[in-house]
Each structure stands twice: as structure tokens, then as C-alpha cells.
Specification:
Blueprint (H helix, E strand, L loop, with lengths): L10 E2 L6 E3 L3 E2 L2 E4 L9 E6 L10 E7 L1 E5 L2 E8 L11 E9 H9 L11 H17 L12 H18 L4 E2 L3 E5 L5 E6 L12 E6 L3 E2 L3 E2 L10 E4 L5 E11 L3 E5 L6 E4 L3 E11 L4 E11 L2 E23 L6 E12 L3 E7 L5 E11 L4 E5 L4 E3 L6 E2 L10 E8 L3 E9 L4 E10 L2 E8 L6 E9 L2 E9 L2
Antiparallel strand pairs: 1-10, 2-9, 2-21, 3-20, 4-7, 4-9, 5-6, 7-8, 8-19, 9-18, 11-12, 12-16, 13-15, 13-17, 14-16, 17-20, 18-19, 21-22, 22-23, 22-24, 22-25, 25-26, 25-27, 28-29, 29-32, 30-31, 30-33, 33-34
Helix pairs in contact: 1-2, 2-3
């Protein structure tokens, strides 16, 4: 298959490192069950506004598994990832092909992946959900009240939290569908494994090629070794993309989000079957990548990629696109290592993104101006902030412009105003209803004199004040 860009990754999970995506599209879709029934396992709980970083009290909050009809498979259990966002009956969700480390460990080691420890399965599911909210939203377990046996539920949640902290660094997520080069340079084969990394047979894997060329077959099966027969590529050009589409195992803890709007954030409660797609690029390329991944921290995305060899490599343009827009914007550049037969690691952080879905690609450019594209094979999703927050302006001190960032965990009317040291309002930067998300505001103080000023953000009955200095 000649030289390929094989974005195949064994993902070692490290606790508290946010989100990392790997080389599979997640295409499975589902809809939250329209009715509570015996398949929903959980309890109603209460906790004050001070119990989490959401900043609001919850009364009779359903705490447990959420049932989803996933790809026409009924009664698939999920957990709610984010306490700060609402889940509505009938919501549509789609696999985002990303991972949240704590949820991966919890959903593969506790109910429903493993039998319940507490006598009541409703209590066990409630404890698991509380543990997930603890990691995502800093839920204070001892503040939760509810059913008569809440003490035993809180104790169980704390046990789950302690075990997750102690052991989640050993968890591994394997790409369960891969395209790999065969011995003949014009061939490839498909490999399927389960979520433990063991080979597994899968029938009806569909193949496609875009950009030029044909395949000797467009449907393959893998056997007990996990491997398909070799597929021959004919007439392909550099950059042709080959895809394999199959129903394979999706590991518990994979994040699902709202299909039409990023509001719902759920995690798959246990390993189940779903549709996924693996891709690879055909051709002899001047730079061969061994991996290309992303990590999310709040509203920042860090891209990591590694090369196994480089030839005449001037560098990489980093390009971003709002999902499905078809328009690409250059957001950064990193120098390459020219010609090298040893591996090199690169990273780039794209900062202060708004809530939404994004695609990334690398434009590798040689010294002659020739270029090749390397695509990140899953969308990057910036979700809704977990808490109300106003950040320090940058730069500070400033002259005459500065930037102010703030986070909105829920929709509401927002005011952002600037005051002098006497308390007089000197500027109104925001005075309107905003949807939940991350926001960046520019402030131009050209008409103001040097001195200390205060800026105040208020929404949904919560306010925060920060200080800045204007020096002319």
C-alpha cells in the first residue's frame, strides 16, 4: 500500500487529562427513551448550589442511568456526563469518538459493566452517576441528600472515586477497526479487535476509496485472527483516502453529544456495538505520520502528531474548520526537520475556541512548495462550560485594547460593564441574552485615561468582578 498515513493509536489514559480522540469516526446515533420505565436505574437526589461548580441547587435530580435507543438497539444504558446541562426525553445523540478518562474507567469497572455491589441496583447506579459528576463538576458527595439509604450510596460513590483515582491510569482504549499495510506495497488489509485488544471476527465491512483509484473488493470479512484478506489498490494517486465502515465494539465511557446542538453530553454506560469508520491515506508521501491526536482542556485544543520519517519537510500549517462548513482557516505553523530518518514529535495548542464542533488538518509543505494534507479523523467538540466564570483580561496592564473571556454554563441575560475606581460606569461591553458557551470580548479604552478599572460580569443572579490596569 506504499507509504500511508496510519492514524492508529493505542490510547493510554491518564487521569484528569480531559479529552483525547483517536483514529475512528463515531457514526452511531441514538435517541433518549421518551419514557421512564423499569430499564432506568437510579434515584432522585438533592444538593445545594455550593455542592458543585454549576452554581445552582438541584431538587429531585434524577441520578442514574439514562436509557437510549442506540442504532435501533433498545435499552442501552448511558450516564450523564455534565451535571450543568439538561437532558431531555427524546433528545437525539451521536457518538463523538472521544474519550473522557474518568468515565472510561468508571463505566468499564462498575455498573452496568459489572454487577452491582449495593443491594439495590438503583442505589448502585446512583452512586456511579455521583462519582462521574464528582470528576466532571466537582460534586461534593457528602452534600447529597435523598433516599433513606443515602449514606450507603454516598459511601459507595466515594469508594468508586477512590478506586478511579488509584487505577484509571492503567486503562487502555484500543481502536477496534483498523486499516493496515499488507506485505505487497499495493495492498492493505482490515483488522478488527475487541475493546480488550483481542482479535475478533466481523462480517460485512464495507470499503471505499475517494480521490482516485479502485479496490479489488468493496466488502470484506475478518476471521478469528481479526484480519481480512488483502485488498489490492489499483490506479490510486497520492492522497487518495481509503475508508472501512463496520459495526464493531464501542468502549464504555465514549462521549455522545447532541446531534443538532451541543447541549447533551452523555457517556456510554458499557461496551456495546455501534457503527465506526477507520480511514487511511494512500501514496508515497514526503512525511509519514505515525499518529495525529487531539486533547481538550476547557476551550483549548492541543494537537499532537508524530512523524516516523521526513523528506525535504519545510513545516506544517495547522488548519481548522467549523464542522461541516467546508471552509478552512490557518491557525498556526510549526517548522519541520527537513530530511530525517528518525521520529519527531510535534504539538500545537489552539486557544479560546467557542462552543462547537471543529475539524483539523495539517498541511505539510516541502521546500519546493509542494504540500500534502493530513486530516484528524474525528471532530473535536468544545462543550458547554461547567461553571460560571470571568477570566483575567489579557494583556494586563494594557494600552489601549485588551481581551476579556467569560464562561456561561447556561443560557441567560448577561451584562459586562467597566467601572472606574469611583464606581462610575465607563463602558458597557455586553448587555443581551447569551446562550451557554465560551465568549471572548475585546475592550478598547482609547478614550479613557490611565488608571485602575474594574469589570463586572453578571448573569442568572451570579456576578464576578475583576481588576485591570490601563497604562498610556
Amino acid at each position: 500500500m506504499k507509504k500511508q498515513i496510519l492514524f492508529t493509536l493505542v490510547l493510554v489514559l491518564v487521569l484528569f487529562s480531559a479529552t483525547e480522540s483517536f483514529s475512528q469516526y463515531g457514526l452511531s446515533k441514538g435517541k433518549v427513551d421518551n419514557n421512564f420505565n423499569i430499564n432506568w436505574k437510579g434515584q432522585n437526589t438533592n444538593f445545594p448550589a455550593s455542592a458543585s461548580n454549576c452554581g445552582e441547587a438541584h431538587t429531585d435530580a434524577y441520578t442514574g442511568t439514562i436509557i437510549v435507543n442506540l442504532d435501533n438497539v433498545p435499552n442501552v444504558p448511558f450516564y450523564c456526563l455534565d451535571l450543568c446541562t439538561d437532558i431531555n426525553l427524546g433528545d437525539s445523540i451521536v457518538d463523538s469518538a472521544s474519550t473522557i478518562q474518568e468515565a472510561i474507567y468508571i463505566t468499564n469497572n462498575f455498573y452496568p459493566a459489572k454487577p452491582n455491589v449495593l443491594p439495590s441496583v438503583n442505589d448502585e447506579a446512583c452512586a456511579v452517576q455521583m462519582a462521574i459528576w464528582h470528576f466532571r463538576n466537582l460534586l461534593v458527595i457528602d452534600s447529597v441528600t435523598g433516599p433513606a439509604n443515602i449514606i450507603s450510596i454516598r459511601a459507595r460513590a466515594q469508594t468508586i472515586i477512590n478506586e478511579t483515582i488509584a487505577n484509571s491510569g492503567s486503562a487502555v482504549v484500543y481502536p477496534t477497526l483498523q486499516i493496515l499495510p499488507a506485505v505487497n506495497p499495493d495492498d492493505f488489509y482490515v483488522r478488527t479487535i475487541d475493546t480488550a485488544g483481542n482479535p475478533i471476527s466481523v462480517n460485512g465491512i464495507t470499503l471505499s476509496i475517494t480521490g482516485g483509484g479502485t479496490l479489488s473488493t468493496y466488502t470484506v470479512n475478518t476471521d478469528v485472527t481479526g484480519n481480512s484478506p488483502d485488498v489490492i489498490v489499483t490506479g490510486a494517486v497520492n492522497g487518495s483516502e481509503i475508508s472501512a465502515n463496520a459495526t464493531v465494539q464501542i468502549p464504555g465511557g465514549i462521549t455522545y453529544c447532541g446531534l443538532n446542538a451541543i447541549k447533551q453530553l452523555l457517556v456510554l454506560g458499557k461496551t456495546t456495538l455501534g457503527i465506526r469508520t477507520a480511514t487511511t491515506t494512500w501514496g508515497a508521501l514526503p512525511v509519514e505520520l505515525s499518529s495525529f491526536t487531539s486533547m481538550i482542556n476547557d476551550r483549548n485544543v492541543t494537537l499532537h502528531w508524530s512523524t516516523t520519517s521526513e523528506s525535504n519537510n519545510s513545516g506544517f500549517d495547522i488548519e481548522r474548520s467549523v464542522a461541516n462548513s467546508g471552509e478552512w482557516t490557518k491557525v498556526g505553523y510549526l517548522n519541520g526537520f527537513g530530511t530525517s530518518e528518525i521520529s519527531h514529535n510535534y504539538s500545537y495548542t489552539d486557544r479560546n475556541l467557542a462552543t462547537g464542533s471543529y475539524s483539523y488538518r495539517l498541511k505539510q509543505i516541502d521546500y519546493n512548495g509542494n504540500f500534502e494534507y493530513h486530516n484528524l479523523n474525528s471532530e473535536v467538540i468544545i462543550g458547554i462550560p461547567a461553571a460560571f466564570n470571568l477570566r483575567q483580561n489579557y494583556p494586563n496592564p494594557f494600552n489601549p485594547t485588551t481581551t476579556i473571556n467569560f464562561d456561561m454554563p447556561k443560557d441567560g441575560f448577561v451584562t459586562l460593564k467597566v467601572y472606574n475606581t469611583s464606581g462610575k460606569e465607563v463602558a458597557t461591553l455586553v448587555n443581551e441574552t447569551k446562550t451557554a458557551g465560551y465568549y471572548t470580548i475585546s475592550f478598547n479604552a482609547a478614550t479613557l485615561s490611565s488608571g485602575v478599572y474594574y469589570y463586572r460580569l453578571e448573569s442568572n443572579g451570579i456576578s464576578k468582578v475583576m481588576k485591570m490596569a490601563l497604562i498610556k
